[in-house]
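tokens incoming
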């Protein structure tokens, strides 16, 4: 046995990695070439960390090494070697970094990947498992590495099945070499032109030279510091693809070079897709912070607020100290100032798009609207701008896809209309059947349709738009109910002495529903339905109360005011029956049922068992009456 084999230790991969490797090596992925991008990106990360250390530490391994990535191929041996002079890895780091999955979300990704056979492997790098993509093309991989910390060297090797092996070795230079033994049918990756073209496609903007057989294959320059006129659309898009590891074209971008009050450069992009909607975990901030071309943080959380977390890009300011710690970021005056400028610029760009490219804005809104909305509650300074950027479906839209802004609503508002109205429910279909809308239809008043559970919180947080209060249609005292004309009731078709018996019915209802409603009143908003429940002012709508209930099971949906429609035939019948003491128990049951019906219309079912029982009794009475037996129901 040789010296080397004696020291070899063998390890099992973590179960998740085994699963991932199995998927990667047995499925037919498109874009296998991205393995090179992933390995170069790891090399570049290792170099970036090294550059940072070299600027802040005095002592470290291999001080005079050039900071670069080299790639060499051997056609005969079918190998491809990617070397870097980055930070390298210690023995523990190897085990930790390539043997275990640390990042959350990776598992989720693996599951999705395995569900979709023959999938595009392109997004693998976003899930912290990019290294393993090498097993799409390799039948054996060696990682030879020497850390800047301790100068010890190790070789890791694996064939991508269940195990990997570790050996101590001699390695001269700091950094990492990845030696890939290609599978028989992946020989193409020993071709120089092939490798160069992959680098152009995916790794052109890596900020260290990538030398393929001695020749530099990438562009290196920092695109954000170049004048706008020198950058082509294609160039911008390539850079986006580079920083996001995707094939997507961004929806829009913002290239800023500010001189005063602080000097900084930035290119920010809005992606085309919001992966949060597709059930992936919450997006992480994607802005990279540089100080004069040196990367300080790749997921900078303080440069943009949470509600703009979907924006990707770079911000570079020579005014940011290199050794700034994550903790002191928040208090840094320059960071603060940059944030404020960037947010204002992004929001104003969004306003421009909304104004001049309506369709594009709607595409944006459908993807990122629900994230942007969060800002209304959180960003007081930009609240008015954010309010203008909101979009809702409304009664003016022909279907559930239509979108209107509060401004558009405001432009169409009736001369005497003092409030902006909205209704909340799970979808447009449910909303359109709602009795609350009857009066709005009659008066031809626009109502915003809120179907996102957050929308009502949003509007109640906003309170008003351009001085007009925002009101839920189920509020008790709406301004549009105050004016006279809805009180004018055609009494000609009403039964004799109706005023009296109607009032009597309301009295009976108050007694029957004493512990269920706050009051019973004549409705001015209903034209067809017999009754509905309205909210005393200041209470959130039933929809929102139900949401609260889901979180807090002790929360009781608050009591409502029951409004009844004096013109409704059923109410008129009931008023007459109420005058006959023989029908008292039947009248009570009907009142109880009317109340339950109104609740159900709001999506609340309080006691299904007794309701079904009551309904059965009512049906029994009805069938008896129809057959002429039992009590005769006269009207
Ligand atoms: P990610 O790059 O998203 O962290 P990867 O699977 O690509 O996920 O890499 C896993 C980890 O392995 C890296 O985070 C890094 O710590 C380590 N690593 C990979 N390649 C290198 C390298 N060339 N030099 C130093 N460390 C590396
Ligand atoms: Mg990586």
């Amino acid at each position: 046995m040789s010296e080397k084999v004696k020291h070899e230790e063998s390890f099992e991969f973590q179960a998740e990695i085994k699963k991932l490797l199995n998927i990667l090596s047995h499925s037919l992925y498109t874009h296998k070439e991205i393995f090179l991008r992933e390995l170069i990106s790891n090399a570049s990360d290792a170099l970036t960390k090294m550059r940072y250390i070299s600027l802040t530490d005095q002592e470290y391994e291999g001080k005079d090494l050039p900071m670069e990535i080299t790639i060499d191929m051997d056609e005969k041996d079918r190998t491809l070697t990617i070397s870097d002079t980055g930070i390298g890895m210690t023995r523990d780091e190897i085990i930790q970094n390539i043997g275990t999955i640390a990042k959350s979300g990776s598992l989720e990704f693996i599951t999705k990947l395995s569900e979709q056979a023959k999938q595009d492997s392109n997004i693998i790098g976003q899930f912290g498992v990019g290294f393993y993509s090498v097993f799409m093309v390799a039948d054996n991989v060696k990682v030879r590495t020497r850390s800047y910390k301790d100068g010890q060297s190790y070789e890791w090797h694996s064939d991508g099945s269940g195990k990997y092996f570790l050996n101590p070795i001699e390695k001269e230079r700091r950094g990492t070499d990845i030696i890939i033994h290609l599978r028989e049918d992946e020989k193409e990756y020993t071709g120089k032109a092939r490798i160069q073209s992959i680098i152009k496609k995916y790794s052109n903007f890596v900020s260290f030279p990538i030398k393929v057989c001695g020749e530099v294959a990438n562009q290196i320059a920092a695109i954000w510091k170049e004048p706008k006129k020198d950058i082509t659309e294609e160039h911008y898009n390539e850079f986006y693809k580079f920083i996001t590891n995707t094939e997507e074209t961004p929806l829009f971008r913002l290239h800023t070079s500010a001189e005063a009050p602080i000097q900084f450069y930035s290119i920010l992009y809005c992606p085309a897709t919001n992966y949060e909607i597709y059930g992936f975990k919450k997006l992480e901030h994607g802005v990279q912070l540089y100080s004069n071309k040196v990367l300080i943080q790749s997921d900078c959380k303080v440069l943009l607020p949470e509600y703009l977390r979907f924006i990707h890009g770079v911000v570079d300011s020579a005014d940011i100290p290199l050794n700034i710690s994550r903790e002191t970021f928040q208090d840094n005056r320059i960071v603060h100032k940059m944030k404020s400028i960037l947010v204002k610029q992004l929001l104003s760009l969004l306003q421009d798009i909304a104004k001049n490219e309506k369709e594009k804005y709607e595409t944006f809104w459908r993807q990122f609207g629900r994230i942007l909305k969060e800002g209304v509650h959180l960003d007081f300074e930009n609240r008015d701008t954010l309010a203008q950027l909101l979009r809702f479906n409304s009664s003016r839209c022909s279907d559930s896809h239509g979108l209107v802004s509060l401004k558009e609503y405001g432009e169409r508002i009736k001369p005497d209309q003092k409030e902006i109205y909205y209704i909340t429910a799970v979808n447009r279909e449910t909303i359109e059947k709602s009795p609350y809308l009857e009066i709005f239809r009659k008066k031809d008043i626009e109502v915003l349709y809120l179907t996102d559970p957050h929308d009502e919180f949003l509007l109640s947080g906003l309170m008003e738009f351009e001085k007009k209060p925002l009101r839920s249609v189920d509020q008790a005292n709406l301004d549009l109910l105050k004016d006279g004309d809805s009180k004018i009731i055609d009494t000609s078709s009403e039964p004799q002495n109706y005023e009296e018996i109607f009032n009597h019915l309301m009295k009976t209802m108050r007694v029957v529903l004493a512990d269920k409603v706050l009051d019973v009143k004549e409705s001015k908003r209903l034209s067809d339905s017999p009754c509905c429940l309205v909210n005393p002012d200041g209470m959130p709508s039933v929809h929102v109360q139900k949401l609260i209930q889901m979180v807090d099971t002790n929360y009781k949906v608050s009591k409502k005011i029951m409004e009844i429609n004096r013109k409704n035939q059923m109410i008129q019948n009931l008023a007459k029956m109420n005058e006959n003491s023989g029908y008292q128990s039947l009248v009570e049951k009907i009142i109880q049922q009317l109340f339950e019906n109104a609740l159900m219309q709001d999506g609340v079912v309080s006691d299904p068992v007794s309701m079904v029982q009551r309904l059965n009794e009512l049906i029994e009475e009805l069938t008896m009456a129809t057959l002429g037996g039992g009590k005769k129901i006269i009207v």
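note: The chain has three domains: 3-216, 223-356, 485-627.
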